[in-house]
Amino acid sequence: MLFLTHNHPRLQPGGTEAFALGLFRALRDEIGLEGLFLAGTTSLLRERRPGTLLQAAGAANDEMLVSLDHFDRFHLSQSDVYGLASLAPMIERLAPDVIHLHHPLLWGVEGIDMMRRAAPRAAMVATLHDYFALCPREGQLLTAEGRLCHGPSPDACRRCIPDRDGSDFTLRDLGIRSAFAAFDALLAPSDFLRGRFLAAGWDGERIRIMRNAVAAAEPAPARIAQDERRDRFAVFGNVNRFKGTLVALGASARLSRDGVAHRLEIHGGTAWTSEEFRAEFAEALAAAPDAAHRGAYAPEEVAARIAAADWVVVPSIWWENAPLVVLEAFRHGRPVICGDAGGMAEAVRAGIDGLHAPIGDPAGLAAVMREAAETPGLWDRLRAGIRPPPDFAAAAAAHFDLYRDLVSTRARRTYRAVRSRDPIAPR
Question: Which residue of 88, 189, 245, 384 pairs with 118 in a disulfide if CB–CB is 3.0 to 4.6 A?
């Protein structure tokens, strides 16, 4: 197997990267598959070494970094086609049965074409972890004014990105669809995400649902609440505007002004955010006396940090797809408060294992947080409704079954194609 993603968790944590690496290692360790994990990177994260695009990601000899600068985020295009071509002989020698792309960022449509040419017999799979293939505005499906967007259209996209010609959006869409035709299967981690692609005209028969997973772990113990109030809230993940950090702080500030006892802790780093956002974040934090920023964290620290919380809040202002933080919360028996639409609302069943709040609305989130803190027995009832999320062993088994079917189907098609071109082959 050959796995490709746009980053490695050792350099920058992110849900897509963490899931891709966890799945790769589970397929290797639980199923016994062999292969290579190639993580794209840029000079912002790791200086390119002379003479090669490749360098080690760490101690593992099957996890490598690939220097992939010169990427056009609008067109999802990698202009360093000479660099990509230099990888082709290695992929040819590897001769993978399966190529699994977990994100087109950095690799680009040219990378997809290179992989298909270098491994013509391989079954190719892509997981649609987000909406980058649909939305030229960082895959967020958010308008320039911050409103939820239900899907791309030439006029709507031009309103969001007015410095682009209308033809740019058409060319982008055609180029991405053409490149993704190389895949034997497309995977979606949520019904909602699949629905967005179907609404944009993608072929639903090619998009299969394959749920995300998190590492198996001993659940963190429940916090001992002396007064039986469940008023400790936590936000996990990268701190940025799209993740709704400012919304969560605004909700906390309102609760404090109203005299509602609570505690909100923000867990995550601010890397790659603008100075403008960091200034807004500092101002919002100062205005929320019952909130604190605990900084970035390593995956092995999640259990200890979540042990101090009763609720995990997912305040994202965009649709989300199938956020891993929800699965992490459920792994540790924490009900989730999240937005009332998109992939996060699909993952959290309101009134069963969590609560929904209006997306992007600090006042609405504050009202739901107050309900969570002050309603006797609510936390225990929702905690009892949590279903254990799938772990990487289960995800590896499901993916292996898919790979095996795709490899078999592709082999049969190749055999029939060869026979049809052979004039002396027996019929």
Answer: 88
427 band by pLDDT with thresholds 50, 70 and 90: very low
- Longest Cα pair distance anywhere in the chain, in angstroms? 86
* CA dist., res. 159 & res. 164, Å (int): 10
DSSP helix/strand/coil, 305: helix
Q: Token pair of 344, please?
A: 């996060």
Between the alpha carbon of residue 256 and those of residues 53, 63, 279, 288, 359, the distances in Å are: 52, 47, 21, 7, 21
369 and 267 assigned to the same domain = yes
Q: Residues 224, 356: contact at Cβ < 8 Å?
A: no
Reported as a single tens digit per residue, the pLDDT across 26-50 is: 999 999 999 999 999 999 888 888 8
**Amino acid identity at 173:** D
> Per residue in 172-200, pLDDT tens?
999 999 999 999 999 999 999 999 999 99
Q: Given the structure tokens 């959290």, which residue do they identify?
A: 348
Which CATH number is 291's domain given? 3.40.50.2000
Structure confidence at residue 421 (pLDDT):
66
CA–CA distance, 341 with 193 (Å, rounded to integer): 11
Evaluate whether 295 touches 227 at the Cβ level (below 8 Å): no
- Sign for the CA dihedral angle at 41, 43, 48, 52 comes to positive
One domain, residues 62 and 133: yes
C-beta separation of 156 from 137 below 8 A: no
Cβ distance 291 to 260 under 8 Å?
no
**Single pTM value for the model:** 0.93
208 CB-near residues (< 8 Å, 6+ apart): 185, 186, 187, 188, 402
Average pLDDT rounded to a whole number, residues 88-100: 97
